[in-house]
Amino acid sequence: xxxxxxxxxxxxxxxxxxxxxxxxxxxxxxxxxxxxxxxxxxxxxxxxxxxxxxxxxxxxxxxxxxxxxxxxxxxxxxxxxxxxxxxxxxx
Length: 91
Fold this sequence. Notes:
2 helices
């Protein structure tokens, strides 16, 4: 009887740990999705504002500079990825 009680206690503690871990994972995923949605809404609203009525107000974003920055970032990430692949395949 005592062994069964100990097993039940260990199983309950393990189940609580799994539930807490799952809840933390759900919170983390909601946070990440919230960040992605927030960035998309910000960029989308700036693009809509800048394209609504030309000349009505000054643009919020200098899209030429933003495109140059995006291209620089993509080139950097691509170079780092290529470097990583070369390092992994040479081992």
